[in-house]
Amino acid sequence: MWAYFAAYEMPNDDPEALRERAHIQYPIKIDRVIGLGKIPTQRLQKLFSQEGEINRFERVLVWSHWAWFAVPHLAVAYVAVRRPKELGTAAARMYAVYDLGAVVYWTIPTAPPWWAAAHGHLEQLDGHVEVGEFGHRYDQTGMPLPVRRMMLEYGERFWGRRWNDLYDVLGGNPLAAMPSLHFATSLMAARLLSEVDPVAGAIGWTYAATLGLALVYLGEHYAADVIAGGMLAEAVHRAARPATPAVHVLTRALRRLRTLAEDG
Known about the structure:
This protein has 264 residues and is an all-alpha fold. The chain has 13 helices and 2 strands. The protein is globular and about 65 Å long.
């Protein structure tokens, strides 16, 4: 996980260079097809949210988003406790999802909807963007932008002065949205839990579904990001068994190299 976090944050060491490489339009185009003209995030927020307010349901979605930082690792820990012999394959599948996602973040940096809205790409809003009270974002005319970032709004209210420090730690790369590793690793967590215990599996699938909705509703990911995250998790799951012999060969080779290095 330390290697993953380093790979996730490293492209943002040079924010200007990262922005120049960032892909912004293609997920918007895909989501406008899915949302029949408007991205699903805009439709959901227009239907169910009220500007300046965070209702109880939206708070549940925000907390499900924050809980993600622990959920995948807790799922692996649950396998370690209940099925210790299966820990190796379970951990390999989970962290393969993280690492493959990091490769895509490096090669195809992609903006999330809240970032696209704040920089005038969703409704072709041009000009300076100002940050108002509790993180509300407005264009230069004072009109709200087409996508709110509710996690930011509620985080500032709930955590107060501590919020900036928390966000600095957890928000190291704003242009790493495709695929959604939030959703991909949550799906993998649900699969791992299902293989151990049907009750734990049901909890895992319920959480994954709730998080998928939260990511789109809150403006953190496009629906296209979430779909791609699901495809990544499924690809790793399906490839795990046929890839196992090759992984064992590679592991043995790396161990021999380490032994030679230590002896030399």
